[in-house]
Structure formats: structure tokens, C-alpha cells
Amino acid sequence: MVNQSEELFGKALNLIPGGVNSPVRAFKAVGGKPLFIKQGQGSKIVDVDDRTYIDFCMGWGVLILGHCHPFVQDTLKKTIQKGTIFGTPTQGEVELAEAITQAFPSIEKVRLVNTGTEAVMSAIRLARAYTKREKIIKFDGCYHGHYDPLLVKSGSGVLTLSLPSTPGITKDSAKDTFVLPFNDLNSLEIAKEKYGKEIAAIIVEPVMGNAGVILPEIEFLKALRDFCNLTGALLILDEIITGFRISYGGAQEYFNIKADLTTLGKICGGGLPLSAFGGKKEIMDLLAPEGPVYQAGTFSGNPVSVQAGLATLKVLKNPQVYKELEDKGENLEKGIKEFASKYKIPICFNRIGSMFTIFFTKEKVKDLKTASTSNTKMFSKFYNFLIDSGIYFSPSQFEGQFISLSHSTKDIEETLDGIEKAFKNLAREFELGPYK
Questions:
Q1: Fewer C-beta neighbours within 10 Å, C or N terminus of the chain?
Q2: CB 145 within 8 A of CB 121
Q3: Is 143 a catalytic residue?
Q4: What does DSSP assign to residue 435?
Q5: Distances (CA, A) of 65 to 69, 163, 313
Q6: Measured distance CA(92)–CA(410) in Å, rounded
Q7: In what helix (H) or strand (E) does residue 235 lie, and over which residues does it extend?
Q8: Do 277 and 172 belong together in one domain?
Q9: Confidence class of residue 159 from pLDDT cuts 50, 70 and 90?
Q10: Which residue in the list 130, 143, 147, 383 is annotated as catalytic?
Q11: Do the beta carbons of residue 275 and residue 238 sit within 8 Å?
């Protein structure tokens, strides 16, 4: 029988670089070839070969309600009948801006854009204009889109100027970015003493999501806020993953920390392209047409995306939603840890609310360095065992998995059954536990 996913991938390789429109989708990190998906409903996705999977990628954390949520779908049907783009302001833009500012007290004004990269790029530009400074601090392993100054890696030693992490980025693009270790108070203190008054902004994922889920130490978040208060730098919290995910008010509500600027995305677009950046009025008022800092976009505030976002936030405003997601996360965590212990699989399970990563390492994962101790060969085997059991995880050791409202008790039970089988197979292959 012809495997249609393989056939499509073969065609795609001749038409699209790497056969995919975003690199991680190519399955290079887990071996094999990518699945081509034709449909999603609730917690499930169906590939072009009619195989069904319980989905924990959920569009990379976008679909907190699940695929094709009825309220969102009904809203979209009604909206599309009225038009898809006007190039003018719409009522929905005002309503979504109001919903965002109510959810995030640190955001007094907000601008809608299309992608997380746009949101971050615009926030950095604003921070530089507001502070009249140029240097930025980011953290190793935190991803902020494919914006040149932030696609950098550490040079040799703390506080050396950063180096481009991909060809095509000039040294000048990277020279004003310092890369520090996440959760490292000592490096932050050195940066404050040496360069504090030159820093325009610190940008950070309050919970790392793009090296796997890595939680912040509370003292680290507090130190970031203190650094900015003392030096006049702006604190930019990249809540593109955590916003509306770990609580309705994101990491800022969860950890009781206040940003100067915030970037949002994924969930606030309800499954369609939409991101946002916002913050204090005095900073946001620098944006054109009110101020001199230019930012624009044909599809910014697209009426269809706006309505999908509004519909999603209306569902999420019910406080029971986050309790339900936490309960599902707890049940999954308990079962995974139990089976890992049973089969002596070395894991570090990191979770906050409805997002988690299973790192295949004995180390406590608290930054990129400890995440990098993970056994990626073991993860690859694990991943493919799950696929065989009809469970779809994000195809990389260094990504998060996401639970949605649509995941049922039965889904969690079936997932745990699949994970137990996968751990048993790993124990056999790597001669662990009962197979040692």
C-alpha cells in the first residue's frame, strides 16, 4: 500500500525547501518522515492515510480548546460571510484589545500583528526608541522568532558579544545582543554591574518553551524586574506561549511579575495568524501614527483572526477552565513518573499547567545546558513508539507538549497506556530496569 504522507513529502522536497514550511516539521530530530495531516477534531488529528492520533502538539500550543471548537467554528463561519479583510479598523479589534488589556494589567495599550516574530521585532524597536539605548539581553535557549538580533548564540565566556547562530545574519546585527544563561543570577549581576546603563531591554520567555518546558526560579524573575528598575532598561516578557496558557493572565498573573512590554501570540489568535505586543501607555504612544516609531502591516488586526481570538478568550475566561487543565496535567504527570520509575527510564518531567516536556536525562533541567544532557536517541525511539500507538507529540526532544480542554479522561488513559508501552520498549532496547 502506498503511504500518502511519504508520497506527498517526496513531492514537497522538490517544491519547498526541506519539504516543509518550518524546519522542525521535517521530523529530522526523530528520524522518519513527517505525517501530513488532513483533519483535526477535538483532541484528535487524522493523517492523509486515515490514521488517527491523540494530539499533544496542538498546533504548537495554539489550540488550547482543541481542534474545531464549536463556538470558534460558528464564529468563523459568521465572520467569513461578512468579508475577510477591509484595510480599515473594525469593532473586533477594539474588543480584542480590551480583552487583552483586561487580562494583562501591565498592558495599557496593545497593537495587533500577525506573527510572534513581528511582535518581538516591534517590541525591541520600541524599547530602543524609548530608552535611547541599543543593547539587549536575552537568554540561552529562549526563542523569540527569526528576528536577526535575537537569533544569536553566546560568544566565549559570559558577556562577550554574541555571534550569529545562522548564516545570513551580519555580525553587526548580533553585536548589541548579550546572551546569558537562563536562571543564572550571577551572570545577571555581572551584566548589571558592567553594562546596566547601556541595556535597552531584557527579553525573556518567563517559562522557556523552545528548549523544552523549563520553569523559572522565582528569584530569577524577581532579579530581572529589579535589574530593569535599577538601570532603566525595559523588561519584555515573551508570553507568546504562556499567555492565556498557564493562566488567563499568563505568566505575569501566575508568578506575580509585571512587564514593561509583553508579546503575545498563539492562543490569542484562536487558531489563526495573530500576535500582539503591548505595554505602558507612555511607551506604546511612541508608535506611529501617534509617535515616530514606525510599524505597519496589511493583515494586522485581520477581522477573521480577531474574531477567532475573541471567541477563544470568551471560553477561557471561565476560571474552571484552568482548574480542569491543571487536573489533566496532574493525572498525566503522575502516570508518566510512575511508569518511568517502574521501567527505570531516566527522565526529568517538567510541567506547568497544561504544558510539559519529558526530558530523557537524570539531570534536573533548569536551563539549556542541563536540557542538552538529554538522550536524544532515546527520545527519538520513544517518539516513534508513541506514533505507533496513535499518540502525536511535537517531533523534538526540545519542544513542549500541550494539553487542551478537549483531551478527555479516556484520552489521558490511552496516552498513559501508550507511554507505558513505549517505556517498556525503551527499557528492553537500552537494557534498563527489568531488562538490565
A1: N
A2: yes
A3: yes
A4: G
A5: 6, 39, 10
A6: 37
A7: strand 234-238
A8: yes
A9: very low
A10: 143
A11: no
DSSP string, 328-348: HHHHHHHHHHHHHHHTT---E
* pLDDT-based confidence at residue 160 (cuts at 50, 70, 90): very low
- State the Cα–Cα distance between residues 401 and 56, nearest whole angstrom: 5
> Is the dihedral angle over the CA atoms 422, 415, 324, 103 positive or is it negative?
positive
Which of 316, 342, 377 is the endpoint of a domain? 316
Q: Catalytic: 388?
A: no
Q: Which domain holds residue 54?
A: 4-68+318-435
Nearest to 183 by CA among 218, 213, 231: 218
- Crossing angle of helices 70-80 and 303-316, in 10° steps, is 160
In this predicted structure, the answer to whether residue 250 has a pLDDT above a threshold of 50 is yes
Element spanning 102, H or E = helix 91-103
Q: What residues have CB less than 8 Å from 87, skipping those under 6 apart?
A: 298
Cα–Cα dist 381/429, whole Å: 9
- What lies within 8 Å, CB to CB, of 338 at 6+ separation is none
Assign residue 14 the CATH number of its domain: 3.90.1150.10
Q: Check 109, 138, 266, 328 and give the catalytic one.
A: 266
The sign of the torsion formed by the CA atoms of 263, 268, 271, 276 equals: negative
Instruction: Tell me, yes or no, if 254 is annotated catalytic.
Output: no
Give the pLDDT confidence of 327-348 residue by residue, as tens digits: 999 999 999 999 999 999 999 9
